[in-house]
Design goal:
Blueprint: H1 2-20, E1 28-35, H2 40-43, H3 48-59, E2 64-71, E3 75-83, H4 86-95, H5 107-119, E4 127-134, H6 144-154, E5 157-163, H7 171-179, E6 186-189, H8 194-205, E7 208-214, E8 218-219, E9 224-231, E10 237-244, E11 248-254, E12 260-261, E13 272-275, E14 279-285, E15 290-300, E16 306-315, E17 318-322, E18 335-345, E19 348-351, E20 356-362, E21 368-372, E22 388-393, E23 400-409, E24 413-422, E25 429-430, E26 442-443, E27 450-455, E28 467-470, E29 473-474, E30 478-480, E31 485-488, E32 496-504, E33 508-516, H9 523-527, E34 542-543, E35 555-557, E36 559-561, E37 565-572, E38 578-587, E39 590-592, E40 599-601, E41 614-622, E42 625-633
Parallel strand pairs: 1-2, 1-4, 4-5, 5-6, 7-24, 26-33
Antiparallel strand pairs: 2-3, 7-16, 8-16, 9-15, 10-14, 10-16, 11-12, 11-15, 13-14, 17-18, 18-19, 18-22, 20-21, 20-23, 23-24, 25-27, 27-31, 28-29, 28-32, 30-31, 32-33, 34-36, 35-40, 36-39, 37-38, 37-41, 41-42
Length: 635
């Protein structure tokens, strides 16, 4: 009996001991190996690699342990594995300040010290991995065994990141190092997407599912952009991360019910919000299933605009991670679209064999193309497959953004998105994902609005060069230079197929088609008259242009009545949705033009919220009169 009691006490003591060092809690041990050689003074003068490491630390939870190695011609252990709880995060981020830019590059020394830190871990069940970032060549090249032998022996993964500085990175070496480990990958990055890559790698190491990775985008001052992501019922926790290089971008999260989550309301809703100089993170436990949206607003942006990256990750027992993409592509390149699909048993992943996977590519011209993704690798002696499903897309024939959607079916269903860029990120493009009506679609009645968004720095868009044509005929479009929206409200379109073409800066052109089933006057025009016209059913009754225009935040809407009438004014957004109704009431015949008599709008919607910058329409109605004009809010 005494021996049994002693054994029980021993087990308790061992449990307490291991618990104190995190053995029972740790999911992952990660060592960040960061290049601090002299070339970084030029290639990363703003220290964005340090900001990326900070973001990874903030994204980690207390189940993750992190160590940091600084290397140039020698390697330094800035901090051994430290638990990423609140206190540990402060310690980890503090030591990042010690990273400088001086000396030569000894990649092997950095990897060797990283291996020593991982080897000293007492978190026996954790997945262990190194994340190596460098911008150059090793000053004293070694054999692969010397670089990665310890990692191979222990089954640890190495993720390598090459910071593109004009061809200075030893990409073959970094690719080879990553390929020598089971799940290691090489990532080519620029300063524009370095933070999103760190976020993606953290998700892979900790067995989280990358639900959406959108590393390319551009935002301008006061511009509002919305991006959506579908969260399925297998996701138990979600991180919504936004990063940028400088300036200030605000993000509001919108759940599938339409409820808005802001930095000031997040805590009251049980949602974590973290903000730093170049990133923000929302963390949602048990997220509602459906489409979540991220609304970005450029609040302090330079004239040349600001690139941004969005990455959404979710914890799930079904792990679906896209393989690495390039930061940008050129016309004629081939894109390998690959996804690793695994199922976790406890904390151990197993490849899923026989899943149904496919991908669609939404091109800059709005066309959609489909690709089958096949598992043609080998996992064991039976050639059962390795759980990596891949296919090639070789139709990069147009500059712009290509939105890739990957669909997985295997007892669960999931959609994962990735946006890639052909050309330079800061080029001007017509965004194929914003075309209205969408390319190739069929609509029951004539559309309320035909529109598209131009992406890229606002200063590089020549608004005078914009030409929109419907079926070969030039139409009088409206251009919102804040949100970069080109739009046209048709009065009448016949049924059948119609072709829209849009040209910007004289050499950027997109054309797309849509089909109308019934045709005729659109539903939009049953409410509104042709833009910029006056509908004079009675001689002296009309609606004048609001003033000022553009305006912020308030406007006056002048009008005249030929006889007494009950008056109302409805305000619509550019999709025809009612934003606000102004019930003016019974008014006598006369002129209502001055500020003391004209209708007044405070720039708020029915909920009392300020509306975003953009194009709006206002319609004055009486029992026998209706007229519409456009207005522009410019913040």
């Amino acid at each position: 009996m005494k021996n049994i009691l002693k054994l029980a006490m021993g087990i308790v003591l061992l449990t307490l001991m291991f618990s104190s060092v995190g053995w029972s809690q740790s999911v992952a041990d990660i060592v960040l190996i960061i290049d601090s050689s002299g070339s970084m003074e030029t290639n990363d003068s703003g220290g964005l690699r340090i900001e990326a490491a900070r973001q990874l630390i903030d994204l980690s939870d207390s189940n993750v342990y992190i160590g940091i190695v600084d290397f140039d011609h020698v390697a330094k252990n800035l901090v051994s594995l430290t638990r990423a709880d609140d206190h540990g995060k402060d310690t980890l981020k503090e030591v990042l300040e010690d990273i400088d830019s001086d000396g030569y590059t000894d990649i092997a020394a950095g990897l060797q010290l990283g291996a020593e830190i991982l080897d000293a871990s007492t978190t026996f069940t954790a997945r262990r991995a190194a994340v190596l970032l460098t911008d150059g060549f090793d000053s004293d090249p070694k054999t692969l065994e010397e670089y990665v032998g310890t990692y191979q022996t222990n089954g640890w993964n190495v993720y390598t990141i090459g910071l593109d500085s004009g061809g200075e990175v030893d990409r073959p070496l970094l690719e080879a190092i990553a390929a020598e480990t089971v799940e290691g990958e090489y990532y080519s990055v620029t300063l524009d997407n370095i933070q999103s890559v760190y976020h993606t790698i953290l998700a892979k190491i900790t067995l989280k599912s990358v639900v959406l990775a959108s590393p390319s985008g551009y935002i301008n001052q006061d511009q509002t952009i919305e991006k959506g992501v579908k969260i399925d019922g297998w996701v138990t926790n979600a991180n919504f991360g936004l990063s940028w290089g400088g300036s200030t971008i605000e993000m509001v999260l919108i759940d599938p019910s339409g409820a808005e989550i802001t930095p000031t309301t997040a805590a009251s809703l049980g949602i974590s919000y973290q903000a730093a100089q170049t990133y923000v993170i929302y963390t949602v436990d048990a997220p509602i299933q459906g489409e979540w949206k991220m609304r970005l607003t450029g609040t302090d942006i330079p004239l040349e605009g600001e690139p941004y990256s969005i990455v959404v990750t979710g914890t799930s027992d079904f792990v679906t991670n896209l393989l690495a993409f390039e930061p940008s592509y050129t016309i004629g390149d081939t894109v390998r679209i690959g996804i690793r699909i695994e199922e976790k048993t406890g904390d151990t992943p197993h490849p899923i064999i026989g899943a149904t996977t496919s991908a669609t590519v939404l091109r800059p011209d709005g066309r959609i193309e489909m690709i089958d993704l096949l598992d043609d690798g080998t996992h064991d002696d039976n050639d059962a497959g390795d759980g990596i499903y891949a296919g090639n897309y070789a139709n990069l024939d147009k500059l712009g953004t290509y939105l890739i959607r990957v669909f997985v079916q295997n007892g669960f269903s999931r959609e994962i998105q990735q946006q890639i860029v052909v050309g330079a990120l800061d080029n001007v493009y017509i965004d194929g994902s914003t075309l209205v009506p969408a390319a190739g679609t069929t609509v029951s009645t004539a559309p309320r609005l035909i529109s598209a968004v131009i992406s890229g720095p606002a200063g590089r868009i020549d608004s005078d060069s914009i030409v929109m044509k419907i079926d070969g005929k030039v139409v009088s479009h409206v251009y919102d230079n804040v949100n970069q929206l080109v739009s046209f409200a048709p009065a009448r379109l016949s049924r059948g197929m119609h072709t829209v073409s849009l040209t910007v800066n004289d050499d950027i052109e997109t054309s797309w088609t849509f089909t109308i089933v019934s045709g005729g006057i659109s539903r939009y025009d049953t409410l509104m008259v042709l833009l910029d016209s006056e509908l004079n059913l009675f001689k002296d009754t009309y609606l004048a242009q609001n003033y000022p225009n553009p305006f912020n935040p308030e406007a006056w809407i002048p009008y005249r009545l030929s006889h007494p009438a009950d008056v109302s004014i409805q305000i619509y957004d550019n999709l025809g949705n009612i934003v606000r109704t102004l019930d003016i009431g019974l008014k006598g015949a006369g002129t209502y033009m001055s500020r003391s008599r004209a209708a007044y709008w405070d720039g708020k919607n029915e909920k009392g919220e300020r509306v975003a910058s953009g194009i709006f329409f206002y319609t004055l109605r009486t029992q026998d009169f209706s007229a519409t004009r456009r207005m522009i809010i410019l913040k």
